Amino acid sequence: MSEDKSQTLRSRPVDHVTSVVKGAIGAVPIAGPLLAEIAGTLIPNQRVDRLAKFAERLGERLSDIEDDKLRANLTDENFTDAVEESLRQAARSTSDERRQYIANLLASGINLDNLDFIETKHLLRLLGEINDIEVIWLRAYYGWHWGQRDSAFHERHATILEPAVAYLGSSQDEIDRASMQESYKLHLESLGLLRSRIRFDNKTKLPEFDKNEGFKKSGFEITPLGQLLVRYIDMIPSDAEA
Question: Which domain of life is it from (predicted)?
C-alpha cells in the first residue's frame, strides 16, 4: 500500500473506513487481495487501521512468493484458519512490533513447505497467549541458550531484562517487580516455551532434592518449541544457529 493511500485510510472516520476496508486491504500488493478475500466480517470496525498496517507488513514478507502459490493455499481450510487467526490477533494488536511478529509467523508458514498450516495455527495461538514483554524474555533466553552476547538487544530492553530479586527487607516496588518477572517466566513455562533447570550438587553431581518442594530449580531455559517460535517470528540475530 502506498504511503499516501495508507495515510488516507487512517485519517477517515471509522464508519467510512469500515465501508472500504476490504478494498483498502486489497490494495496492498501480494498479501492484500488474499487477506481481503478471507477478512469478510471478521474485522471489528475500530481496528481497520491495525489490519491495514498488518497487511503492509505481510505483503513485504510475501513479496517473493508467486501469486499462484498463495491462491492455491486458499483451498486448504487449515490455511484459511491460520489467516483468520492472524487477522484476529492483528486486530487486537497494540504495537507495530506485535503486528510484525504475526506477519513474520504467517509468512514463515507460507514460505516453508516443512511446516503444516495446522502447526502454523498452533504457533499463532501460542504467540497470542503471550504479551510483548514475554516475547522479549523468550528472545533473551534464546540468545543465552546459544551463548550470544547480543548486547544491543539487552541494552534496548534493559528495563525489562534487568534481574529483579526480592530479599527480606526489599521495598514493595522491588517485591512487585520480582513477582512480575517470575510470573512471566512461569507463564512461558506453562505453555512449554521455557522449562526449569534442575540444580545439581557440585560435589555429588546429583540433582538436589527437597522433600517438601521436590527437585530444586536453577532458573529457566528455552525449550525446542520456544526456539521454534522465536525463529518463526524472525527475532533471531543473523548469525544465530537454527
Answer: Bacteria
Please tell me the distance from the alpha carbon of residue 168 to that of residue 233, in angstroms, as a whole number.
Answer: 40
Given a contact cutoff of 8 angstroms between Cβ atoms, the answer to whether 177 and 159 are in contact is no
Phi, psi of 241, rounded to the nearest 5 degrees: -80, 150
218-239: pLDDT as tens digits: 789 999 999 999 999 999 865 5
Contacts 24+ apart (CB under 8 A), 89-96: 89/124, 89/127, 89/128, 90/50, 90/51, 90/53, 90/54, 91/42, 91/43, 91/44, 91/47, 91/50, 91/51, 92/47, 92/50, 93/50, 93/54, 95/132, 96/53
Largest CA distance in the chain: 71
Arithmetic mean of pLDDT, 182-191:
97
The confidence score (pLDDT) of residue 40 equals 52
**Residue 184 amino acid letter:** Y
Q: Please name every residue paired with 209 in a beta bridge, in sequence order, or none if there are none.
A: 215
C-alpha dihedral sign at 30, 35, 37, 38: positive
- pTM for the model stands at 0.75
